[in-house]
Amino acid sequence: MTVNTIGLTISTPTEPILPGRGFYQLEEEALFIQVGPFVSSRRFYSYLEGTGILLHFDRHGRLIFVEIEMARRHWRLNPHLKAPTVVEPADIRWLNFRNSIKPPRIETNARRTVVKLSFEDTVEARSYYAADSVIVQSDPSDRLCALWVTDITDDIAGQEIGFFRKKSRAKQSYYS
């Protein structure tokens, strides 16, 4: 079943802003977006998928990974694209699982280091950190409007994403 809107629960943050960023896999021509550390407590549980996009969630409904299987040469170029400047920390939980979604509109800046995935148009978008370089925008009814990635690195054979995951694990508190 295809859902028309993606529901979110947005509440006061329960932990610091997580590490996260985009890794453009040059040999696969796909964007992988790591959201938070790659650790045993944040394992894959469910998904939302559409043509060329797959969102992965843990068992608590937290976004943990996104795959965009569209070559960046096909992303719509918007030289004026600017990420939101007012972004709040939040605990974001996704409410839809194991459904199909409409493919988002994908825009990028001239250097292709920022990408915006638009799911729904709204004038009153609120912006929240899913991770330090991953921003979720919602409408006043807590429905997903857009997903931003503000730091994208070129990657070959998964070396950069592997290094990022290793570095994120090393920074984890021993209380986790």
Could you describe the 3D structure shown?
It is a single chain. The chain is 7% helix and 42% strand. It has 1 helix and 17 strands. The protein has one helix spanning 159-171; strands at residues 2-3, 8-11, 20-25, 30-35, 46-50, 53-57, 63-68, 76-77, 88-89, 91-94, 99-101, 105-108, 115-118, 126-131, 134-138, 144-149, 152-155. The chain has an 8-stranded mixed beta sheet with strand order 1-11-5-6-7-4-3-17. It has a 7-stranded mixed beta sheet with strand order 8-12-13-16-15-14-9, with no helix packed on it. The longest helix is centred in the C-terminal third of the chain and has 13 residues, at 159-171. The chain is globular and about 40 Å long.
